[in-house]
Design goal:
Blueprint: E1 27-28, E2 30-32, E3 34-41, E4 45-51, E5 59-62, H1 63-68, E6 76-83, E7 86-93, E8 97-101, E9 104-108, E10 111-114, E11 126-128, E12 138-141, E13 146-149, E14 161-168, E15 171-180, E16 183-191, E17 199-201, H2 203-208, E18 219-224, E19 233-240, E20 243-246, E21 249-252, E22 255-258, E23 273-275, H3 277-280, E24 283-288, E25 293-298, E26 311-315, E27 323-329, H4 333-336, E28 344-348, E29 351-352, H5 358-362, E30 369-375, E31 381-387
Parallel strand pairs: 4-11, 5-10, 16-23, 17-22
Antiparallel strand pairs: 1-13, 2-3, 3-4, 3-8, 5-11, 6-7, 7-10, 8-9, 12-13, 12-24, 14-15, 14-25, 15-16, 15-20, 17-23, 18-19, 18-27, 19-22, 20-21, 24-25, 26-27, 27-28, 28-29, 28-30, 30-31
Amino acid sequence: MKRFLAGLFASIMLCAALSTQAQMDSIPFLLRGHLILHATINDTVDCDIIYDTGAADLFGVDSVWLSHSQWKPQHLGYANAGGGAGRTLIRIVMDQTKVHVGSVEEQYIIVPIFQLRDVVSCHIDGIMGIKNIDKYPFEINFEHNYLKQYKTGVPNTNGYVKLPIKYENNRIYIQAETCIGGKTIKGWYLMDTGSGGTVDFTAQTTEQYQLDAIPGKRYFTDVLQMGLGDKKQEAVVDMLSDWIVIGNDTIKRNPISYIPEGTGAFGTASYMGVIGNIIWSNYNIIIDARNQTLYLRRFKPQNALSPTYGYSFRNRTDIGRGWIVSSLERESDAVNAGMALGDTIITVNGRNVKDYTWEEEYHIDEQPSQVLEIIDADGQEKRITLESKMRW
């Protein structure tokens, strides 16, 4: 499930109390591949949103959520929007809109309406970018799961490594190196907390560095709606890196992806690729965009590689019966057993998927085996038994 928590724009009420190490005006987040925040629109409407550093300074909402919410905008229009999967025509709210996230209040004159849940899941109602990050230092603390904007005082950077960044057009770029099969790809990468992956290279980098020609094991995976945009399906290639270096820290033997025919943010770009939360969640981060500086501190060892099933899904029980198969590794056991993109998973190990909590759903791929009851696009029922396997 965790493999393809897509990069959206590379274009919950939380029950747990914050650690005492977090200050009072910090904003708690829930890490589910993405950073999930609780927000309030116009002081009355609650929603759960993704915090996405790749999404510039926008605030957008999901179309299905909006149609069922108590928010009834008065003025609507249309706009052309770009994302991780190209561009598309969308509706927009043209009312002055106030959004509260913790102690932060932002005003928006345009709110895009996306088919966001087609990219993520029914747990997500909206998305917020990094508006005004250049005004104050900003902390993303993965150790204790909070964000903090330092309007007063200064963050404690003891034990952090100071790194140069480029802050351009409300996006953050950081220098990094990735080595695959002895070939090093060094340059600027987009910092993208809207991605639940590791490193995803653009089509331009794929061609420039001839990633298809690098010897070694690779897996081809088809993905439905990898990001916001008009490209409905992508082919993604996974390989195992030799190492990834950010600053003075090295992450060894971590899977990376490249997208040979990527569009939008994964097409032609000024950066090599995007770095997502599987990498960032190892660190605490302080961003000083005004001074083009980022502070980084590693707080946990690298996670060991784990077995997978060769597919992932998106929960669409809000509009349907189950979990939709959204990515599928070619020639995998799942394919050989009869699974197809767009299939609806109804039960896992005899339990209806509607009865799984979000926590249980998120960790479903950690079960050593799965018996799946599935309905295909023609309404035919299938029963598939799978065992998780190591890829590398």
